[in-house]
Amino acid sequence: MHLFQLVLTAALSLGLAGCGPSAGPSINTPPEPVAPAPAPVVKKEIGLVMKTLTNPFFVEMEKGARRAEKDLGVNLTVKTAAQETSIEQQIQLVEDLIAAKVDAIVIAPGDSQRLVPALKKAHDAGIRIVNIDNRLDPEAVQQAGLAPVPFVSVDNEAGAFKVGQFLAQGITVPTEAAILEGIRSADNAKQRAAGARRGLAQNPNIRLVASETANWKIDEAYAVTRQLFKQHPRIKLLVASNDVMAIGALKYLQESRRKGVKVAGFDALDEALAEIRSQRLAATVDQQAGEQGYQGVALALRLAQGSAVPSVTLIDTRLITAATLP
Fold it and tell me: What is the pTM of this model?
């Protein structure tokens, strides 16, 4: 009996020693919850289709679009045709962006009608569309079954009116005038030609004797101007619907040593501003190409995010002459 009590006492002592300082119940504390990692931000993919980069106007437009890419946090893919008349190439560029499954396309179309079917295909694929610079033909858009496309540009007719009116000021004797038009199927070309006509018509002493297309190109403008002066050697006022054509016309006038012809352009390219400073170009119009590119990308992002945007966004134009040069 004595031996049994000794064994029992030893066992109890060992059991108590194994419990350590605390004899309370054992508690398992769950680990602190770990917050899930934030989902990666997926940038919207936006494609910009322009007519060309051979015209400095579109170089400035791309700069504005790139600025929007940085400011707004999107991925921008820029595609350009070889020339402003390369309409089939622009159509293929739209097809390429459809295949790339971009979220939105911003387009400065070379033609107001022929790009519509490709853009309808893009819309049907769920891609948002924003139209900048040259407006798509509303009738062609409607006939294609395409919803109205938001448009960013300037009032081309009003801008060209400023140019025509400026050239017409102070003319007190009968004077002949001519216009160099852009691509005639382009809405902005139509609007600029109409505005120039209206501006020149403010002075009854001015007679418009010719209005011919040079398709926005410098070489064509040189050749067309040469032909115009063969047919109408007394032309004294010449409105070119963009600065590139104005520079082509000036080149012909300088080489042929014709004096006393006032020429105006449209776009406010650096080359045109230099010609104004040299008193060879009378005026041009600043239509803020960079701002058009920026606003086009900004609207495309809003559409891709499901937000509503204005149907038309007009950017101010400014007549630039020797008196108003910055």
Answer: 0.80
